Fold this protein.
Amino acid sequence: MPYVKRVRLSEVLDGRGDPTVAATVTTDDGVEATALAPSGRSTGRHEAVEVRDGESEWYNGRGLRHHLAQVEPEISEALEGSRLDISRVDEALIQLDGTANKSRLGANVTSAISLAVAKAAARADGVSLYHYLNPLARTLPVPQMNLINGGRHAYNATPVQEFIVMPVKAGDFAEALSWTMRIYHALSQMVKQRYGHHALNTGDEGGLTPDVPSLAAGLDLLSEAVKNAGLAGGVRYGLDMAATHLYDVNTQQYTIDRAYTREELFAMYADIVEHRQVVSIEDPVEEDDFEGLAQLTRRLKAQWVGDDLFVTNPARVRRAIQMGAGNALLWKFNQIGTLSEAWTAADVARRHGYEIVVSERSGDTEDPAIADLAVALGASQIKTGAPVRGERTAKYNRLLAIQRELGTLGRYAGQDLMERYG
Ligand code: 2PG
Ligand code: MG
């Protein structure tokens, strides 16, 4: 097995124009691989944290050049000579960081290094990243495509963060992608007519930005677009409520078009699950309400996804399992800061029948690696925005390439998902 020779860290930009970390790992036999850390905006309180310099004249405090210059020698020295083995390197990073939330080295730093090591190991073996991580990987995920952006991801008056289409009945991943773009164009026409051309501007994840005040208004728009695209019946719907950001701790209510008590919110979920073909709802309650999530999971047959609630953290996933809270894990490896820990979270979740939804961040990069990670994990879904921005197409184009590479061995997850939640 090759050895790590050197780790270099540099400041590069994410898709929002904010600085992020590029880590380059070089091995003793000259293999080199680079990985970029993505960055969230509607982050959970329990996530591992990013470190930034806070130097106001450099990217308004979002830069990290000083931090990287400071930690690079220390990390490079600690990892030099260690075997090119993801769990060993991750363990060394965790030890070196020494905090519970990666706040010394920064989860942005550890995530980039962890992924770069995985890429270097795959390259050293001469195989694709997904194949290196799981030689039996065969599943192409259903895209959970976020076509209307709101909340913290858009400058509009839409309180709900993501209105999603899921092309579950497509024959394969390539067809699924073509369906979503047909829907995107149909939606664009409607949005232009009804909301004016400004609403065609895209949010952070490439979705359109009409002002939709309520769940019903957004879902109506999507289902009409699906009908206009001639795809009614083939598609189901999803939401990311990102409910932490709608929640008022003092009143214990959620503000959408008006303030809702938890019970009122649950009644609305029941209505859309029963009558509007909504099959997946992410973060339906605020990030510490495991009990509320458990109630929803018991009461309504749908996919209940934990993002800010679970933060890809094995301990929080275990707690969810014990309480029967949710049945799907939103998987973002930078929420915990190393691939190994994120892998454990997925393993624990999957063993208890949870779906895995691999996800981008709203400030993502041209690094396509989560496409490989989704296939390696056997994730039934991937959430990576609308394919009209480069950091999103990077992932979709990589999945198209993986579909071609797998050929007849590949299997699109749509049918299975329909059987479980359709
Ligand atoms: C989410 C993510 C990605 P962010 O809430 O699911 O869509 O947003 O990266 O801003 O946390
Ligand atoms: Mg989310």
